[in-house]
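Hey team,

Filing this mostly as a record. A colleague (T.K.) asked me to run one chain through the structure pipeline before their review meeting, and I want the input and output archived in the tracker in case anyone asks later how it was produced. No errors, nothing strange. Just documentation.

Input sequence:
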Amino acid sequence: MDQKCTKCHKVFPWTNEYFNWERKKQGLLRKICKDCFHILAKGYREKYKVVKEDPELFQIIIPTQEEKEKRLYKAYAKLFRQAFGQSLSKEEFIKLNITV
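Output structure:
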């Protein structure tokens, strides 16, 4: 039985040679191929700046307060746009007085 990767759309045999395990005990494989999975994992590590300080310990750098506020504003702006059909300005967001 063959399966199409949801990212690159290539068709591979539906085995763990081409797809990683989603839940090994239940025998479920991921819907993306191993090559695409490795690319996504590498992008995640770069995005969150995973730093290898010790061979057995990985530490994720905590985002700054400014980055947290920016993410919070983007999330509220998206919700506001979905609920009311208009954009939320920075000034309106500040008036809401939402803190992280």
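Quick notes for T.K.: Residues 65-84 form the longest helix (20 residues). Residues 65-96 form one domain.
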